Amino acid sequence: MLIKRNIYVTTLAIATTTVGLQAHAQDKEITPLSDWNYEDIYEAGGIRADKLMDAEVFGDNEEEIGSVENVLLTQDNNIAAIIAQVGGLWDIGDTHVLVPWENIELHEGGVKLPVTEDNVDEYGLFASDEYITEQSLSQTQQVDDDIGTGSDIWKLTDVLDDYASVGEGVGYGYIDNILFSRNGEIQGVVVDTDSRGPYAFPFYGYGHGWAPSYATYSLQYDEDEIGEMQPFDYERYESLLE
Half-sphere exposure (CA, 13 Å, Cβ side) for 139? Predict the structure, then answer.
């Protein structure tokens, strides 16, 4: 996080002069903050990024086998897969597996994967010189711990702890958390403003001056628009992972 903060000014300058992220970027209509309602998020509940990252991983036999290391998302801001580190208890060394989100079951205290000591070797290793793309996420497979992503996939760590700016690049805080629905769709991004507390905003991502390589995320609102917002109350948000 310290490195990202140190390069805030440089990255922001690059972000404001870069045009056209990808030709197929998903533009979304900006939601006025007057129409943005925490109550809908509180009522729905969901999955907090800080609970999902580093969550314990369980195998089919309920054995704890590792932890979540990263989350992969599509340009539509939906969870596509997770990357988990497994194998420490099996004396096979650290092994990283990519598992499609549709094959993951939320488990008390973590997530459950269709991976066991007996079948982990059946999952082939994704080529280390290639990038993970959306088309590559249809099956469970072993991956390198630092596998890259193509233009249609991004990692949760690409935005967590990034600076958040408002208006014409005014620093507002940093991305402290992301909220997901039960289906893995982003509900909002939570910005920590230090002394003022956390605030949740709509997340737009691609097509709005952001790419995974940027260390700054623009909230798409001016300072006067956010002045009347209330802090986000985590106690009212029912998290599916504890």
Answer: 8
pLDDT tens for the chain, residues 1 to 242: 434 444 333 343 333 333 333 444 445 789 999 999 999 999 999 999 999 998 999 987 788 888 999 999 999 999 999 999 886 555 555 788 899 999 999 987 799 988 776 776 666 556 555 788 898 888 888 888 888 998 889 999 999 999 999 998 899 999 999 999 999 999 999 999 977 889 999 999 888 888 999 999 999 999 888 988 999 999 999 999 97
Phi/psi zone of residue 161: left (φ > 0), alpha (ψ -120 to 50 degrees), beta? Answer: left
Amino acid 143 reads V
Tokens of 200: 């949740």
The whole-angstrom separation of Cα 68 and Cα 83 is 6
Amino acid identity at 206: Y
Q: What is the DSSP string of the chain?
A: -HHHHHTHHHHHHHHHH---S-TT----PPPPGGG--HHHHHHH-BEEHHHHTT-EEE-TTS-EEEEEEEEEEETTSBEEEEEEEE-GGGTS--EEEEEEGGG-EEETTEEE-S--TTTGGGSPBPPTTS-B-GGG-SS-EEE-TT--B-TTEEEGGGTTT-EEEETTTEEEEEEEEEEE-TTSBEEEEEEE-GGG-EEEE----TTSS--TT-SEEE-S--HHHHTTPPPP-GGGS-BS--
Q: Is 106 exposed, middle or buried (0-12, 13-18, 19+ CB in 10 A)?
A: middle
